[in-house]
Structure formats: structure tokens, C-alpha cells
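FORM 7B: Structural annotation worksheet

SECTION A. Query
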Amino acid sequence: MAWKTLAMAMILGVWGLPAAAQDWIGTFEDWNAFEYAEGGGKVCYISSTPLDMTPKNVTRGDVFMQVVNNTDDGSKNVVNIVAGYTFQDNSVTTATINNVDFRMFTAGDGAWNSSSEKDNEMVQAMIRGAELVVAGQSSRGTNTTDTYSLLGFTAAHQAMTEACGG
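SECTION B. Predicted structure
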């Protein structure tokens, strides 16, 4: 599945790219939009960091979520959450928006939906929602809760979609 490959590549690659390799599209309240050329196409993504993370006394790496569109392989609305720790083996993390739970599979420090249909459902919920809460468990057994604002998500998503050809 191309969207899973893209999501893993995003985790391993995009965040390590020098700033010049990415073009900033804009900041929309609590969300940022970026684009960069890859292969014969363009990758556009929006990202945000949590406004609140619990427990507070746990050291974690980078924690963020992103939604990605790639014109090269045609994938759209690929949702990825990075926890800043390695998830418990064979675990599922839950992202909750407006009392609707999205159960996401985990690998390493990332979490994804099981299909592009679930990604699209989650993006639509994010457009309608105000807050997204992610509950996960680390490989050490620590339960975490990260709360993201969805303020600006709709505008950032629209800017990303326009930048990558609608």
C-alpha cells in the first residue's frame, strides 16, 4: 500500500530534511503547511504538535501529527501520528475526535489508519472537530495522552490540497 510507504518515508525523511528542501506554505492557527518536490511530483503536508501531553514527567522525542498528500503516487489525506517513543509491540493507539474513536495500528514510534477510507473519515472528522486526543502506550508500559488543537486545520488542509493539485 503506497500510503503506508509514504507515511513511513515521511517519518524517516521529511523531518530530517534541511529547511531549504521544503517550502513553507503557511501557518494556519495551530497548523503549518509545507511542500517539497519528490521524484516527478510534489509532496504536501500539514503538521501540528500537541497543546498538552501527559504524563508530564516522561521524557519523549519529537511528538507531532501530520496529514500528507503526494502527487507522484496519488495518495491523499494520509494521517500519521508520531508519539516520541516506541509503541508497545502489536498495540493500537486511539485518536478521538468529537467522541468518535479512530483505532490506529502502530509501528515503531508511528501510528496510522488501516486504510485510505479511514484516513478520509478521520480528516473529515478533523475538519468538523475542535480537538483531537491521542491515547497510546509505550514499549515500557507508560500510558500517554496527547491533545491536539484542530484550530486552523481546515484552512491548512485546504492550502495543502491546493498546493498539491486539489
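SECTION C. Observations
The chain has one domain: 2-163. Residues 1-20 have pLDDT under 50 and may be disordered.

SECTION D. Sign-off
Analyst initials: ____
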